[in-house]
Design goal:
The chain is mainly α. It has helices spanning about 1-60, 70-80, 85-110, 110-115, 120-155, 155-165, 175-180. Helix 1 runs antiparallel to helix 2, helix 1 runs antiparallel to helix 5 (about 120-155) and helix 2 (about 70-80) runs antiparallel to helix 3.
Length: about 190
């Protein structure tokens, strides 16, 4: 009887440790998948944005014949953004695309006929809506990445994370310092 208890106690402790490790592992997998899902939500909106930009540019080209440099910058920025491989590269490329689009919208102000074009106005409204969706998706992604990163860095889950090679996720951050500043309104 004493030998049986001597075997059951260590076996019970091993079973508890295994259940604990499995529970943490499953939690980390769930969190990693939530981060991946949040990134895919950003990706969907970025694709929508990338698909919309050529239509916006083509509509404007008929009115803005002397703005070829502006169109070229938008096209190049869009290509870089579409080819970004990871979160950090995507954030940088999307920041450049946002800058190019902002400059484009400033140039549009010089073309009242274009601003009055119904197709252009519709595309512009769709772009604004898409930008808002991208912003919300980025916020959701960063929240998920924060929760996941905290989990893999805090004890005791950091031990399990290290054993199974769970790695930290990058945040989708603003690269361009000008975007962090409040806009200046002038009348």
């Amino acid at each position: 009887m004493g030998i049986l208890i001597g075997l059951l106690v260590p076996l019970g402790i091993l079973v508890l440790i295994a259940v604990f490790v499995i529970g943490i592992y499953n939690t980390l997998v769930r969190l990693r998948n939530q981060v991946d899902n949040a990134w895919s939500q950003i990706d969907v909106q970025l694709k929508r944005r990338h698909d919309l930009i050529p239509n916006l540019v083509e509509t404007a080209k008929g009115y803005m014949k002397h703005e070829q440099d502006t169109f070229t910058k938008i096209t190049e920025a869009r290509s870089r953004a579409m080819g970004a491989g990871n979160v950090a590269d995507a954030a940088k490329a999307e920041g450049a695309l946002t800058d190019a689009l902002s400059k484009f919208m400033l140039v549009v102000e010089n073309y009242p006929d274009l601003k009055a074009n119904a197709n252009f106005l519709s595309l512009q409204e769709t772009l604004t809506s898409t930008e808002n969706k991208i912003s919300f998706a980025r916020q959701g992604y960063n929240d998920q990445a924060l929760f996941y990163n905290n989990k893999i860095q805090m004890f005791p889950s950091n031990v399990v994370a290290g054993m199974f090679s769970f790695t930290k996720r990058d945040f989708f951050e603003i690269e361009n310092e000008a975007e962090r500043e409040a806009p200046k309104v002038q009348f």
